[in-house]
Specification:
This protein is mostly helical and 120 residues long. It has helices spanning 7-12, 50-73, 78-110. The chain crosses the membrane at residues 52-72, 78-97.
Length: 120
């Protein structure tokens, strides 16, 4: 691991957790096979469903709290809830998914989780 950078912050920013320079993703959520800067094998990491679960929990809490707060304080008609909260839910979920996946992959790197695999 290169010194002088935080692998978790690098993952959150979509950078290689090893060097902090190369891109972690090829597309929106597709993990690059190798870091173009240091050659680190990024394909070893597997975040599974973890990022999606955290995003659903965090976004669900934030949007549900905001919707309930709005309902009890302002009492808008139901169509206002649909027009405001459904698109906001999509935007928050999509906006959080890539940084959360990068964070989960970086946490695997920082804790050397790929070395503990048992593919028997």
């Amino acid at each position: 691991m290169a010194t002088g950078h935080n692998p978790l912050m690098a993952g959150l920013a979509g950078r290689c957790p090893n060097c902090g320079e190369g891109h972690l993703f090829e597309g929106f959520l597709t993990v690059s096979p190798r870091c173009e800067a240091c050659g680190y094998d990024l394909a070893r990491g597997d975040s599974g469903d973890g990022p999606a679960v955290f995003v659903i929990m965090i976004a669900g809490f934030l949007v549900a709290f905001a919707a309930l707060f709005t309902e009890f304080t302002i009492h808008p008609p139901i169509w206002v809830h649909l027009v405001v909260w459904l698109p906001l839910t999509v935007v928050v979920c999509v906006g959080m998914l890539r940084p959360m996946k990068g964070l989960m992959l970086a946490a695997q790197f920082a804790n050397r989780a790929s070395e503990a695999r048992n593919d028997d």
